[in-house]
């Protein structure tokens, strides 16, 4: 493990293998919370926190508990339980410290528990055979990439509210069209070589 590999993980998970725009994970909160920049930023910070901590907690559980006891087949269930506990913690903290943001996020905050992007990063950390530090970096930078996609989409959707959009395209249809175009743009990063 060196700084170059960590840098490639960061660039790769933010731009090239973005969980929302390249891997198509976490689309429900992406489309649901991206109506305003404030709620998108709040959700993004919550996802960064949960992805980072989930990566930090699930890696040792897998390597120090599940594998030595020969129960690695329970990986998905255990990871979901860890993620659900972390989301409950985030909800409690947000309710006490930022009740307006808690109300703005609404049902999408508890849906972080079932956000496949968070489970996806925990599983990919194991499947890619990353070290603990690499898993932590991938978890954090995946959250940053998720937040970047949310903020870009929220900015576009706020601008679309001011523009003249045909009636049949207003709301979810134009959001899906924009998400598709953003995805095509981010997939263009996959053609670049960093070497």
Task: Give me some keywords for this one.
195 residues, mainly alpha, 8 helices
Overall form: globular
Number of strands: 0
Strand content is under 5%
Count of helices?
Answer: 8
Spans where pLDDT lies below 50 across 5 or more residues: none
Number of domains: 1
Distance between the ends: 17 Å
Radius of gyration: 17 Å
Describe the structure.
With 195 residues, the protein is mainly alpha-helical. It has eight helices and no strands. The protein starts with a helix and ends in an 8-residue tail after the last helix.
Q: How are the secondary structure elements laid out?
A:
Layout: H1 3-16, H2 27-33, H3 37-66, H4 75-97, H5 99-105, H6 116-127, H7 132-162, H8 172-187
Give a quick summary of the entry:
With about 200 residues, the protein is mainly alpha-helical.
């Amino acid at each position: 493990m060196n700084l170059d590999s960590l840098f490639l993980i960061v660039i790769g998970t933010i731009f090239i293998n973005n969980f929302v725009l390249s891997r198509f994970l976490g689309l429900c909160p992406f489309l649901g919370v991206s109506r305003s920049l404030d709620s998108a930023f709040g959700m993004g910070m919550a996802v960064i926190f949960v992805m980072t901590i989930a990566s930090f907690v699930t890696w040792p559980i897998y390597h120090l508990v599940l594998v030595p006891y020969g129960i690695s087949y329970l990986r998905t269930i255990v990871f979901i339980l860890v993620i659900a506990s972390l989301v409950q913690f985030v909800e409690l903290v947000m309710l006490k410290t930022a009740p307006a943001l808690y109300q703005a996020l609404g049902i999408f905050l508890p849906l972080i528990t079932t956000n496949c992007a968070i489970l996806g990063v925990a599983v990919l950390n194991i499947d890619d055979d990353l070290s603990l530090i690499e898993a932590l970096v991938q978890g954090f930078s995946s959250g940053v990439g998720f937040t970047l996609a949310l903020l870009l989409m929220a900015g576009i959707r706020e601008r679309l509210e001011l523009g003249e959009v045909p009636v049949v395209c207003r709301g979810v249809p134009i959001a899906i069209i924009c998400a598709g175009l953003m995805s095509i743009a981010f997939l263009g990063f996959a053609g670049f070589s960093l070497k």
